[in-house]
Amino acid sequence: MKSYKKILITSALVSLSFVIFSTKAFAANRFWVGAANASTNLTSSWSTVSGGASGASVPGTSDVAVFDGGVANNGNTNAKIDVAFSVLGISITSGYTQAITQNSGIPITMTGSFSQAGGTFTSVSTSTFTTMSGNFSLTGGTNTGSIIFNSSGQTFSCSVPFSGIFAIQTGAYNATEAIGSGCSVTLNADVTWSMSYGGTLTNNGTMTVPAGKTWSFYNNPYASSLVNNGTITNNGLGWSFAPYVSIANNGTINYTSGVSMSVLGLTQSGTLNINPTTKVVLAGNYNYSSSWVSCTGTFPGLVSNNTYLPGGSWGSFSISSGCTVTVDTSSTWYFSGGYTFTNNGTMIVPAGGSWSMANMNGGGEPFINNGTIIHNGTGLSLGSGTSLTNNGTITASSLTSMSIPGGLTNNSGGQITLGATTLTVGGSFNQSGTFSGMTGVTVFTTAAG
Asked: pTM (2 decimals)?
């Protein structure tokens, strides 16, 4: 008899466990039916059906929290998120006309998506985040949340104004994130944005950096890219993307308030409205060391390079054919040993400027000119061990001094025109092209060539 009772008890426990497990495994929607300003952490606030009886479990990580106004307005009440809220997703339909308030310091985490077609979603603090792995969709109502994407393949879309702020912090490799067409988003520049290896953020809408902020975008350990097909407006202090994030601008970038921009590489084929005195610093890194400026026509800002590669590393910096850039002479250009600098476009050194390059770890860098360099300034000093190979045209009639520590080669077809210049060449001096304007030029070499 005792054995029979034990069997019955065991069977009951197994059945109960199955019921509990099944409830969790097949958990679904939870519908808001709470009292006015009730907490989302109460079972009396939730039902298993729209406008139904309360008493359902509080939505969890397998559930979608639905705010739909219920039946006969049973569920069309204000809601208060006052305890950490971790759910599969949140759905706010057009039938919901009340307000959901996310209290300060109370995070919301979703493994799925957020959609809103009505009502008001308010985050009391911009530093209190709604983090999601799925998509964000705003087609109605008002949203002042602080949204963070943390996965891959996510799209931020809106057909009505979004009044909150947005950021990306994902460690997913090759992550692809997007801002939808017609969507205007204010960026959260109080946090550092991050993507991992091979990530791409594509903007098809409008992105705005708020006043007084610096937009920092960090990727470790390899490169990611920002592809702009829409409009990005910088009202802040600047962008700090180097040395991991590059920009491909096919749309419009308004960068009239920033004094500087640092970026891994910049491909410019759209419209770039930038002050002519704004410094654009190109910088590589030890894992992804190639940086570049690519454009058609005249690049409107000042360009410089600042790349550090540990000893023995290689890399490159290039200016594309058809691209005209103005050299920033107010800052020293920094390169590392083994780095190759190639100009295929046109570089202009402004009047009165002296262009200086420095080597950061003692090696030599080849400087190869396949395009045109017009030096209207007073000086050119290359870094320790740096050589100059000219296959294009260098015009420096106003130059008073020129120092090339690693040697000078002017190949056949190359043309160098100097004025009354003191030319110091450390290493070989190989001349088979055209070297004109030599009147008054004094050449010093420290090795025979």
From this structure: 0.89
